[in-house]
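PROTOCOL LOG
Step 1. Enter all chains and additional molecules of the complex.
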Amino acid sequence: MNRPDHSTYIEWLNLDADGLLEGEERSRLEEHLAACADCRREREELQALNGLLRRSAIDARPGFRQAVMASLPTAGWEVHSSQGWRFPAAVLVLLGALAAGLLIAGSAPSSAGFSTLVAVGSLFRAAVLAGAGLLAASWKGVGLVVERVISSPASLGAFGFLVLCLNLLLISLLRRKRPARQAEGAPSDPRR
Amino acid sequence: MTRGAEPLTDEDLVTAVLEGDRDRFGELIDRYQGRLVNYLFRLLRNADDAHDLAQEVFVKVYQVLDRFDPHYKFSTWLFRVAQNAAIDQIRRRRLKVVSLRQEDDEGESRDWDLPSPERGPYGEMRNQERGEAIHEAIETLPWEYRELILLRHFGELPYEEIARLKQMPLGTVKNKLFRGRQMLKEKLQDFLSD
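Step 2. Run joint prediction.
Step 3. Record the structure below.
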């Protein structure tokens, strides 16, 4: 087996000072130390430096943990994790109930129920188009849908409620935080 | 608290906190308060500032705990947040070089320098001299070495975590750390035999 060069022994001495050298490398270092006064002095100095730095540590203030715990605010994720799913779920249930209501209300002639479904579908399509900025193209579609939907006061009320629910759903989804995989970037020299 | 016979990992504690067991965050504080305060103390050179900033760091980490990526070690994340916070503070305040001897609210002086068995006027003077020498030696290290020395010796992070935090190859971390130690040894030569 080749004899390591001196830089390898220096690396081993540093690892040894951190308690990370073991096995054959440690044995070979010990053999080398028996014959090398420079490396023995290096080891003593590294151990002394580690001890000096370790002894220079200060204690955290008594009651530090309690102070931190008392100062913790209610984090955004606590609100979301405990009830964040409830609101969108409730809105979805309302939307489902509303759609079922519309179907049942207009189910006397079967074609009327079908027309209602088509109208609601058109409304969703128009909303998506409007949201995407294609206002010019969607206004006509929205107008047609509204004209068909608001044929009676009850339908008008249901339509208004549907729009309100959609807006609430949208707001609740927008308020949910996006996950961030990396919260912090790499730090740099403060003196720069 | 243990999982069977094994203590919970940091990542287990984070999961428990996220599931509503807020008190588990206290266990994370217990694990890291000493290392974090010492790490910040060496960066800020002021024990009160270090404690205040350590508290801010814990609060900040708690507020965004749901963003913790379990692919990383909690300690890596914590010290990254701490380092960024310290650098922000240093830049903001232009870090005043102050004596290690601080005065508390009652105007009495408190020692934040080296805890040491040395007693008596000479021992106290030597402690203070040594504490200032350590600060000075660390402060005058080039930043690329200093940050690694602080993370290793005061943050007590393993080499691998430092490499991940600094996004450096492991070999580079070791080389810089060992080189930084050589510089520190030379600067602190007078105190190594204490």
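Step 4. Note key features.
Chain A touches chain B through 49 residues (CB under 8 Å).
Confidence is low (pLDDT under 50) at residues 177-183 of chain A.
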